[in-house]
TrEMBL record:
InterPro entries: AB_hydrolase_fold, PGAP1-ab_dom-like, PGAP1/BST1, PGAP1_TMD. One of its GO terms (biological process) is endoplasmic reticulum to Golgi vesicle-mediated transport. This is GPI inositol-deacylase. GO terms for cellular component: endoplasmic reticulum membrane. The chain crosses the membrane at residues 644-662, 683-703, 742-768, 842-861, 906-922. Keywords: Endoplasmic reticulum, Glycoprotein, Hydrolase, Membrane, Protein transport, Transmembrane, Transmembrane helix, Transport. Pfam families: PGAP1, PGAP1_3rd, PGAP1_TMD.
Length: 945
């Protein structure tokens, strides 16, 4: 009774943990803002003109092609006569060359708007939609093909005046990695590329490291860019992350690894991109109109009008990208913002504003009389408390609008400096926020309005303020509060801007629900507020607009942890209305915390599941050695899955690696780095998270065990239809002709096709074996239950004295018995159950091996028409070893294992394998099948010895 109660409690606990995992996955996949991107459209039918490649290139890369994009008349005009600026688009994992359409179409329309003074030629590569995010064996091949294509593209311009000598690259997803990998080629000239724009590219590490070739490729690229950073300082790189809508590539992975010695890279999240301010999913980032427009505008502003090619000025490239993707201002960044100007428009009206708070609302356009108007705002004297000027406008779009004035004569500014470039576009407002200490040489600020640039009503609001009075600080709630406690801030707004600093908010596992309620005494017409969550150490802000009064919820969470040497804190900026009260409530969002945990560490869950299965397998073998029978999988899992027997050893090793003597010893043993170290460097690893993930892995393994047990029982009934169950023999046949033939066949499959294909075939055969065992055990139990008394059956006495009708009931076990002179006993059934329990656990381990090898199989199957054999094959060595092991295990029996001299050692080594898997398989998932293989090899050797 007590044992049943414990099993129920265990099931409830594991179910609760599994529910937490499900909630975290639900938050990552489904709980995010809706897709607010606008679709890009074409005005003419798109054409993809295939570029003829040299025979040497086309014969070597038969499944790859190069295309030039065009539309309608422009496609006919091209006719392979390229006269523009070359841009090469590289698709990502399973991406299509047709994804260049959005950029190409918008660029064609913009070129028409400037009367085709210059235009861009958009090329795209067809990688046959290969799954390079799952299989890294073709990444080097793709890189070399791109190198060949760049040479072909530049040759198309060889007869053109001012012919381009470089190509700009736009890479989506893994295409961005290919673009950076070009520089690692031995014969590649860095001058062939001047600009790289990547979209949702995981630069830091692969999303699913299930392939050693993928890891090696990443290490080569990132190490090269770090070590050769000085040599690559003239290459400008912009990396865009999609934000929280992109559940395939989290934005923290899109940050380019760098020593930070040279300012040639820019990392942004799309939610912070001006005039976009939205998050995108992994594919949407390619066609999202708001981002496509920003990218195309940047391309056109990057052109040197003397050469009609992308400028070679590094500072200009960075400033243009910063202008379009970080801090958009009305004035183009290349203009000289410090030039002096004089105002000589005698018909303009001048107004001096002598108040610290000023609002101007224009009349209807038809009623606005002056051709131009100037509003002079005198600077407060140095002794006054006002140290900032904040101004914002709505619906005002002149090319210049704010100046600093040095001389004033009869209300006319004789000399001024254009400060428009320091204005920032913030969704519905254009704002400036000046520190007056930096502008004490001025006597006035000037707001300039020209009727020629006014087409609708507009508003201007300005105020001189003391910055400290508008800054508030509050502590965020503790993560363990689970939303039960809250921090509250009340702002009685008398101004236009307020800031709330969120202290102790610097870790990725923190997530908060910020509720902003606004209530105004009176409003004149429709009033809008803008709230911005600003992260100072990275460009990952997001902006929310709302009407007044309102109740707005903001989910505050981070894409990257705060750097070690940074003391800044995130802040909530509120661009508010006057005479309103704002109540800000901050709570820990438990669902969002789970989402962050899964987003950053969900990739570790498969490893922890395997760790738990190995521990359960070891406990089963120990119980078989000491007690003579085997526990079922879930009972063994409950007894063995303790995080304190795995996690402390890893933490101890991480601690000792701080010391040189231990690090030297570790190196002499040729052990790889512990996988938790990169997470520590990124600031996303904590001991409590490891324990929690371990428990999550236990829950997944537990319920996976229940599901597999139920599934095997149901499938065994179907299997009984095709094959009659029989009593399991205790004798272990190490190898027979059929097993040897199957092993030879699978080895032939590995040699001629793909190791993953052989593993899947072997797994199917092993599954059939387990189904047969399940059906046989059920049959043996039913035979044993047919007898009226078990002890009479054991002795055989009842068989001699039974009536004729009862004798027929005892014939069935005699007929099914492997030895007709010996009747079926309870020990026979127990041994059969033990055999089934062990084979079921082995099936659990094989399930994950198959899962880790599935990407290679999918890649091989998809490219089967081009190549029958997968080369290189990441699963080849594992497949060869497992084929031999499964050949030995498929006929194994628990009685032979009990007599094994290696059983005790095999059982104890499972703990070491579990620790090794947790230490070296979190960030390198491809290593996990090796540990599983080693476990099965040890067990199969125990069947022999």
């Amino acid at each position: 009774m007590a044992g049943a109660r414990m099993r129920w409690l265990s099931a409830i606990l594991q179910g609760f943990l599994l529910a937490l995992v499900g909630l975290g996955i639900w938050d990552v996949l489904f709980v995010y803002e809706e897709n607010r991107c606008s679709m890009t459209y074409m005005f003419e039918y798109p054409e993809y003109i295939k570029i003829k490649l040299p025979y040497k290139v086309s014969s070597k890369y038969q499944n790859y092609d190069l295309y030039l994009y065009g539309e309608g008349d422009s496609a006919e005009a091209h006719n392979l006569k390229t006269t523009g600026i070359p841009v090469l688009f590289l698709p990502g994992n399973a991406g299509s060359y047709r994804q260049v359409r959005s950029l190409g179409s918008v660029a064609l329309r913009k070129a028409e708007n400037i009367h085709n003074k210059f235009h861009f030629d958009f090329f795209s590569i067809d990688f046959n939609e290969e799954l390079v995010a799952l299989y890294g064996g073709s990444l080097e091949k793709q890189t070399k093909f791109v190198h060949a294509c760049i040479k072909v593209i530049l040759k198309l311009y060889k007869d053109q005046k001012d012919a381009p000598c470089s190509v700009a690259i736009v890479g989506h997803s893994m295409g961005g990695i290919i673009a950076r990998a070009l520089f690692t080629l031995p014969n590649f000239k860095p001058t062939l590329i001047s600009l790289i724009i990547t979209q949702a590219t995981p630069h830091v590490a692969p999303v699913l490291p299930v392939d050693s070739y993928l890891i090696d490729f990443y290490n080569t690229v990132n190490n090269y860019w770090i070590l050769k950073e000085k040599d690559l300082r003239n290459i400008t790189v912009l990396s865009m992350g999609g934000g929280f809508r992109d559940y395939q590539v989290r934005s923290g992975l899109t940050i380019l690894p760098s020593l930070g010695l040279y300012n040639n890279t820019l990392n942004v999240v799309t939610s912070a991109v001006p005039r976009a301010w939205l998050s995108t999913d992994h594919l949407c980032i390619v066609w999202c109109k708001e981002l496509v427009l920003a990218t195309v505008r940047a391309f056109f502003d990057l052109v040197d009008h003397q050469t009609n090619q992308i400028t070679s000025d590094l500072e200009k490239r960075i400033s243009v990208l910063h202008h379009h993707f970080v801090n958009y201002s009305e004035k183009y960044s290349e203009d000289n913002l410090e030039s002096s100007v004089e105002f000589s428009d005698s018909s303009a009206t001048w107004s001096v504003i002598n108040t610290y708070t000023w609002t101007y609302s224009s009349p209807e356009f038809s009623a606005w009389e002056p051709k131009a108007a100037y509003f002079l705002l005198p600077l407060p004297s140095e002794g006054e408390p006002h140290n900032n000027l904040y101004c914002r406008t709505t619906n005002l779009e002149p090319s210049t609008w704010i100046y600093g004035c040095m001389k004033v004569d009869q209300s006319v500014c004789q000399e001024g400096i254009d400060l428009t470039g320091e204005a920032e576009l913030l969704k519905m407002y254009k704002i400036v926020n000046f520190n007056l200490d930096d502008y004490r040489s001025f006597s006035h600020f000037i707001i300039h309005i020209s009727k020629a640039n006014v087409n609708k009503r507009f508003n201007i609001e300005c105020e001189f303020l003391r910055a400290e009075s508008r800054m508030m600080t509050t502590q965020v709630t503790n993560i363990l509060s689970f939303g039960t406690s809250s921090n509250r801030v009340v702002i009685n707004s008398a101004g236009l801007i307020h800031k709330v600093k969120l202290q102790n908010f610097n870790q990725i596992y923190q997530a908060f629900k910020i509720h902003v309620r606004s209530n105004c005494q009176f409003t004149h017409g429709k009033t809008e507020d803008v709230y911005r969550f600003h992260v100072p150490w990275s460009h990952e802000d997001f902006v929310v607009t709302t009407s007044v009064p309102s109740s707005t919820v903001i989910f505050a969470k981070l894409h990257s942890a705060r750097p070690e040497n940074d003391s800044s804190v995130p802040e909530l900026q509120l661009h508010t209305a006057r005479s309103c009260q704002y109540e800000i409530t901050i709570r820990t969002s438990f669902l969002e915390v789970l989402g962050q945990l899964i987003r950053f560490h969900g990739i570790h869950l498969p490893t922890y599941v395997v760790v738990n299965i190995l521990l359960a397998f070891g406990r089963q073998l120990i119980h078989l050695y000491s007690e003579g029978h085997c526990l079922d999988f879930n009972s063994a899992l409950n007894a063995a899955s303790k995080p304190y027997i795995v996690i402390p050893f890893i933490n101890l090793a991480v601690f000792l690696l701080r010391y040189d003597w231990f690090k030297e010893t570790w190196s002499n043993l040729m052990l790889p780095d512990i996988d938790v170290l990169p997470s520590n460097e990124q600031g996303i690893a904590y001991p409590m998270i490891s324990i929690l993930l371990f428990l999550f892995g236990t829950a997944i393994a537990y319920w996976n065990g229940i599901f597999l047990r139920v599934l095997l029982r149901q499938l065994s009934f179907l299997w009984s239809i095709f094959q009659r169950p029989r009593v399991i023999q205790k004798e272990y046949k190490k190898l027979n002709f059929r097993s040897s033939s199957i092993m030879i066949f699978l080895l032939f499959i590995i040699w001629t096709t793909c190791g993953a294909a052989a593993l899947i075939l072997g797994y199917i055969l092993y599954l059939v074996k387990v189904l047969s065992l399940q059906a046989s055990v059920r049959t043996m139990k039913s035979i044993l239950n047919l007898a009226p008394k078990q002890e009479i059956i054991k002795k055989g006495a009842f068989a001699c004295s039974a009536k004729e009708g009862d004798k027929s009931r005892t014939k069935e076990p005699e007929q099914l018995s492997p030895d007709n002179n010996k009747l079926l006993s309870v020990s026979d059934v127990d041994d059969a159950v033990d055999t089934l329990q062990i084979h079921t656990t082995i099936l659990h381990l094989l399930n994950w091996v198959i899962l880790f090898s599935a990407p290679s199989f999918i890649y091989w199957f998809k490219n089967l028409r081009y190549s029958r054999r997968l080369d290189p094959d990441p699963c080849g060595s594992v497949a060869i070893i497992l084929v031999f092991s499964m050949g030995l295990l498929i006929n194994s029996h628990s009685t032979s294992v009990k007599r094994s001299k290696l059983l005790k050692h095999t059982a104890r080594l499972q703990l070491l394998l579990a620790i090794a898997s947790a230490a070296f398989g979190l960030e390198h998932l491809y290593r996990v099948p090796y540990f599983v293989t080693f476990s099965l090899v040890l067990y199969s050797l125990g069947c022999l010895v």
